[in-house]
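name: query_chain
kind: protein
chains: 1
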Amino acid sequence: MVDDGAGPGETEEKQHEEPEHLQQEWSDDVRGLPSCPPADAVPTGGTVYRRQSGDRHQTYKEQNKCRKGAGHEEQCRCASISVFSDIESLRDAAKVHVYMAAQPILRADLSKEHGVIARTGTTPGHCSLWLRRKYLAIRDRLFEPVP
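structure:
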């Protein structure tokens, strides 16, 4: 979850300040892009939410949905997983994106070791989540249904 008490860049643990051995833990899709994850991404910590869909928590890049000719920033977002920082924002998004309303809500409780997260897009509460390689491999086990 993105800490609501600190704005982008107001944390002392920015991704780009990580030791080299941690930077090597990103997927090839992330490592192959300059400034990805972006400098304003902060370590994960807390609960994030998303809707269960047929994508198996894949990134747009893995689904081949990233726009051809996209710039580095957009490609970096395509290498992330779309999540929400709170359940109410996710429910509100379903009012705008009606296809989401019928999809079950999932949650993941993340610690800072899981990866980094940044607020992205214009939808309130929407974030992009970049999981480290080892957690990306087990992402389907990180997300559980909300009762």
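note: Residues 30 and 105 are 26 Å apart (CA to CA).
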